[in-house]
Specification:
By secondary structure, the chain is an alpha/beta fold. It folds into 2 domains: 8-187 and 364-376, Glycogen Phosphorylase B (Rossmann fold, 3-Layer(aba) Sandwich); 197-352, Glycogen Phosphorylase B (Rossmann fold), CATH 3.40.50.2000. The chain has 15 helices and 13 strands. The chain has helices spanning 17-21, 24-32, 55-60, 78-99, 111-122, 138-150, 159-167, 181-187, 197-200, 229-243, 258-272, 285-293, 308-312, 339-352, 366-376, and strands spanning 8-14, 36-43, 67-69, 103-107, 127-130, 153-155, 204-205, 214-218, 246-250, 277-280, 297-300, 316-319, 332-335. The strands form 2 sheets. A 7-stranded mixed beta sheet has the order 7-10-9-8-11-12-13, covered by helices on one side. Strands 3-2-1-4-5-6 form a 6-stranded parallel beta sheet. Helix 10 (229-243) links the parallel strand 8 (214-218) and strand 9. The chain is globular. The two termini are 24 Å apart.
C-alpha cells in the first residue's frame, strides 16, 4: 500500500473489557499522531451490560466509536460462538466498507479477533495484529496463529513470540517487537489503591475493606473443555473459601462455557450467601491495574496475572489449562482444577508477598512504537512465506 498524502486511517476494533485495556495506549498514540487518523469500532461483549459495558469506559476516555457492531448470539456454547464469529464477519465487512480504513488493528486471540482479520483481509485491507506468536491453551492458541497468518504487520510482546512468528514463515520486515500495550497503561500509573475503589465499582456482595488484604479471582471458561466449567469453578470457589480472605471476584467473559461458570457462582451465592466475596462485572483498565497491583494474590486463568502481573510483581496462581505454556515471570505458580492444590499454591504465594517486577512483556513504550510504525512503514496486502 502506497503512502497517501492524507493521514493514514487506522481502524481499531475493540471487543471486550480486557481487549480495551490491551489496546488503549495504542488508540491514544494513534489519536495523537499527526500522520494518523483513529477510527474505532466497538463490538461484541464490550457493548453488553452483563459483561461490563466497556463502551462506557471507552467513551469516558474520549474515544467516540466510529461504529458499533452487535454480533453476540446468546447461549455461550460452541455453536453460538461459531455463529457470533460469522455475524461479526458480516457486520464488520459493512463497517469497513463504510469507514474505508487504510489499516485494521486487532488484538490477541479472541473469536472476534479472527472475525476482524477475515473480514479485513478478504477486503484487501491490511491487518495489524498485537500479541501474535504467543503460546497458550484452549482454542485461543489456534485462533492466535490463524490471525497471524492473515495479518500483514505484527507487534509481538516478547522476543520469544517474535521468534515464533518468524519460524511460522512471517517475513522479518513485517514483525516489530514492541512489547505489549497493556504494560504502557501501568508503567507510569499511580498504583495507590483508592479508598473508594471497591464501593465505586458497585457489583454485589460483601463490603470489602481496602485497608485489609484481599484476593482477586478471575476465572474464564476454557472453550476446549466445554461442559466442565461448573465443576472447575467449584474447585476454585472451595479453595478461595478455605483461604477465608475478602475477595474481589470478576465475572467471566463471553466465551463458550460462560454460563456454566456463572451458574456455579450464582448457585454459591444462593446457597451460601456472599460471605467475604464481592462480584464485579468490570473495572476501568486503570482501576483493574490498581486492583491487582495491591492484591495479596490473583487466582484464576486470566492472562493478566501472567502479563500485567509480571510487570507489577503480583503473586499469581494460574489455574487449569487456559494459559498453558504462556511465558510468565517468577510471580506465577500453576495449579490444576483441584481445591487443595489451589489453596496450597495461594497460601504459598500470599506468604511470599510481592515479586520483583520484570519487563518480560514490555517497558511501557509499545503504543508510541506501534503508532510510529503504522504511520511510516510500507504495508502490503500481498504476503509470502519466508523461511530464510
Amino acid at each position: 500500500m502506497s503512502r497517501n498524502k492524507s493521514r493514514r486511517k487506522i481502524c481499531v476494533v475493540v471487543n471486550s473489557r480486557a481487549n480495551y485495556g490491551r489496546i488503549k495506549s495504542v488508540m491514544r498514540a494513534v489519536q495523537d499522531h499527526p500522520d494518523l487518523e483513529l477510527q474505532t469500532i466497538v463490538g461484541a461483549s464490550a457493548l453488553l451490560y452483563r459483561f461490563g459495558h466497556a463502551v462506557d469506559n471507552i467513551r469516558a476516555d474520549g474515544f467516540e466509536p466510529s461504529a458499533t457492531v452487535y454480533s453476540i448470539v446468546e447461549g455461550e456454547n460452541p455453536t453460538t460462538m461459531a455463529k457470533s464469529t460469522g455475524m461479526a464477519i458480516m457486520d464488520l465487512s459493512t463497517q469497513f466498507e463504510n469507514l474505508r480504513p487504510d489499516v485494521v488493528l486487532t488484538v490477541a486471540d479472541r473469536f472476534e479477533t479472527i472475525a476482524t482479520a477475515i473480514a479485513a483481509s478478504y477486503m484487501n485491507i491490511p491487518v495489524a495484529h498485537t500479541q501474535g506468536g504467543e503460546v497458550t491453551g484452549s482454542i485461543d492458541e489456534s485462533v492466535r496463529h490463524a490471525v497471524s497468518k492473515l495479518a500483514h504487520v505484527h507487534f509481538p510482546a516478547t522476543e520469544l513470540a517474535r521468534n515464533y512468528l518468524l519460524r511460522m514463515g512471517e517475513e522479518a520486515e513485517r514483525v516489530h517487537m514492541t512489547g505489549c500495550p497493556a504494560i504502557d497503561l501501568i508503567a507510569d500509573l499511580d498504583l495507590t489503591l483508592p479508598s473508594d475503589l471497591f464501593s465505586s465499582n458497585k457489583g454485589v456482595g460483601a463490603t470489602l475493606d481496602p485497608s485489609q488484604p484481599y484476593l482477586v479471582v478471575l476465572q474464564h471458561p476454557v472453550t476446549t473443555e466445554f461442559g466442565q466449567g461448573f465443576e472447575q469453578v467449584q474447585e476454585t470457589l472451595a479453595a478461595v473459601l478455605a483461604l477465608d480472605m475478602q475477595t474481589a471476584w470478576l465475572w467471566p467473559n463471553v466465551d463458550a462455557g460462560s454460563d456454566d461458570v456463572s451458574k456455579g457462582l450464582r448457585m454459591h451465592r444462593e446457597i451460601n450467601g456472599d460471605g467475604k466475596l464481592h462480584f464485579y462485572r468490570n473495572f476501568t483498565p486503570e482501576d483493574y491495574a490498581r486492583l491487582i497491583a495491591n492484591a495479596a494474590c490473583l487466582i484464576g486463568n486470566s492472562s493478566s496475572g501472567l502479563r500485567e502481573g509480571a510487570f507489577l510483581g503480583t503473586p499469581t496462581v494460574d489455574v487449569g489449562t487456559r494459559q498453558a505454556r504462556r511465558e510468565h515471570g517468577e510471580n506465577v505458580v500453576h495449579a490444576g482444577y483441584d481445591r487443595a492444590e489451589i489453596e496450597a499454591m495461594a497460601r504459598q504465594q500470599i506468604a511470599h508477598g510481592r515479586f520483583p517486577k520484570t519487563a518480560l512483556f514490555g517497558d511501557g513504550s509499545a503504543g508510541r512504537q506501534i503508532a510510529d510504525i503504522l504511520a511510516g512503514a510500507p504495508i502490503s496486502v500481498q504476503k509470502r512465506l519466508s523461511y530464510s
